[in-house]
UniProtKB/TrEMBL annotation:
This is Adenylate kinase. It catalyses: AMP + ATP = 2 ADP. One of its GO terms (biological process) is AMP salvage. Monomer. Pathway: Purine metabolism; AMP biosynthesis via salvage pathway; AMP from ADP: step 1/1. The keyword Transmembrane does not apply. AMP binds at residues 31, 36, 57-59, 85-88, 92, 129, 140.
Amino acid sequence: MRLVLLGPPGAGKGTQAAILSEKLGVPHISTGDLFRANIGQETPLGLEAKKYLDAGDLVPSEITNNMVKARVAEPDAANGFLLDGFPRTVDQAKALEGILEGLGAKLDGVLAFDVDDEVVVERMLARGRADDTEDVIRNRMRVYREETAPLLDYYAGQIVTVDAVGAVEEVNARALAALGK
């Protein structure tokens, strides 16, 4: 099963992806993990990405696309994967389509984790990270919505919305039910 996971920061995508990955037997592919792995292994893509990250800039889509392309072509992803943090834009979604076509595969669906802004703020403040102030959190949510809203239109018809409010187990049960599992 090849799935894209969407949802604002603090929606619980990473938590749910870890559980779904285990239950579905497919890898959880997070762009953050991909960046860290490529930088840690000093791959050409990692070294290129590091230049941007060190300067505080966004990593260009071409680099991210190539990291995702290499990762989804690995043997453990042959039967599927959960993409978390990619695509973020319609251009990246189109690139993903091309990547999958090259593998003779297609996306099976998009899980959109839906959560109220106030719940996100509450959850993220509870994590106790120094950089998680209410203003920073609200700005990240605004950026997410501006950046990702067009994806909701692009994937219309493929999106299954999951209510992400509640205990981890409840949300997971809803996600599995939404996938027909």
